[in-house]
């Protein structure tokens, strides 16, 4: 049996103060954004989710945060990642990223589309996203990769969370990873592709025949399914310049059946 591939565990740090994030301006009108399927039910892209100008504003701002270089040597079973990171629990920012950018309409369908946005029915959306998407994971992770840094092959795991919604909290689980790239070759960053690999785990039905390398594009968002169906993937080594990423996850409502949340 091949060795078990590491799973990425994310630990939010509850006491980090909320950063004074720049406003999301300028953005393209949400009607100009679309979900582009790269691999059905697995990898979806949103080109120009952030404009180039907004990305450059964010990179300048994120540079002022106290990023910490992750140690080259992970704990047993953790993925080897080597980058500079900042992690904060920020429900407000997660909500803004969900509501003020057009992401919610893209994922859940807009009102004007009569509940059938993007040609998908309500049922198809639930099937695709793994339930009713209610927002983004408040655990916001910022990555900076400089020359020679990378994120080794791993799977992203599902997390169970409780969102602090009003009037009552909402139990959720994460189902898809969101990566928002703020830099690319046009800003002087070479390498750093997110690469999905075939994997040889016995009985794993969600795999790819050939590797899929997604090149960086300034302002592009990438969504990929995680948890049980996660594809083996890596953040390839950056060979020049800096790669900046904002990471969160889609959260779906946990269904309560027979008194148990699933
Ligand atoms: O930076 C990348 O391209 C990949 C990041 C990643 O895989 C993760 O955050 O789990
Ligand atoms: Fe990952």
TrEMBL record:
Record InterPro entries: Oxoglu/Fe-dep_dioxygenase_dom (IPR005123), P4HA-like (IPR045054), Pro_4_hyd_alph (IPR006620), Pro_4_hyd_alph_FE2OG_OXY (IPR044862)
Annotated Fe2OG dioxygenase domain residues: 136-256
Cellular component annotations (GO), alphabetically ordered: endoplasmic reticulum
Protein name: Fe2OG dioxygenase domain-containing protein
Cofactor(s) this protein cannot do without: L-ascorbate
Organism per entry: Calycina marina
Ranges in a coiled coil: none
Keyword terms of this UniProt record: Dioxygenase, Iron, Metal-binding, Oxidoreductase
Taxonomic superkingdom: Eukaryota
Region ranges (Disordered): 1-20
Entry GO MF terms: iron ion binding; L-ascorbic acid binding; procollagen-proline 4-dioxygenase activity
Keyword Iron among record annotations: yes
